[in-house]
Write the structure tokens for this entry.
Amino acid sequence: MPTRKTTPGDNAAQPASPRRLTRDLTRAVQLAMMLAHSRASEILEVSDLLAGLYMDDWDRISRFWESTDDIEQTMRQLCRISPQRWNYWLEYYSEIRGSKKKWWEAMGLPLHLRKKKDEREIPMGRFFQFSSELAAVFKEADEIAPFQDRIGTRSVPIVSSECVLYAIAQNARSTIGRKLLATGLDVAALEQAARFPRRPPV
């Protein structure tokens, strides 16, 4: 069954609960937003986030594969990005990070949408929405996350890249999840890193 597309006003597209993101996951989501913005979409897909995870910090997540010989080509296929666009985004995002340019400036968002007190609070619902499949991924990642933070009187999960990657991989009903498993992903090591990280999240 194809993933149901949601509209900007559809509450089902919202994250299931408030959360904090680690710095590395925040950057990956920001890149996912850029990818969605480049195709004039207000909907973030699992493939966008997977591309963001790869492009932002492959060195961090590559440890969960025994062999990475053909992984870049596989990731391009999973994320449905042509080799030309893939290389463009790798170079473009590297330039942005090198210049420390803010992600909203790079995207050309209106000024009134740029101000954020905490960049880890991704402003979903204001100009981007999760697809139903990505919302389910984050809901699962919320449950996996071992650390909590406080927002007012509430405790919220602190979600890491490992939590999200594991949530994507363990969804056997997802085409991307099944194909990700077929790449030789070490799911046991990934789950260990997601549920029992060696250091507190940043």
Observations:
- Residues 83-99 form the longest helix (17 residues).
- The longest strand covers residues 154-159.
- The CA atoms of residues 78 and 175 lie 9 Å apart.
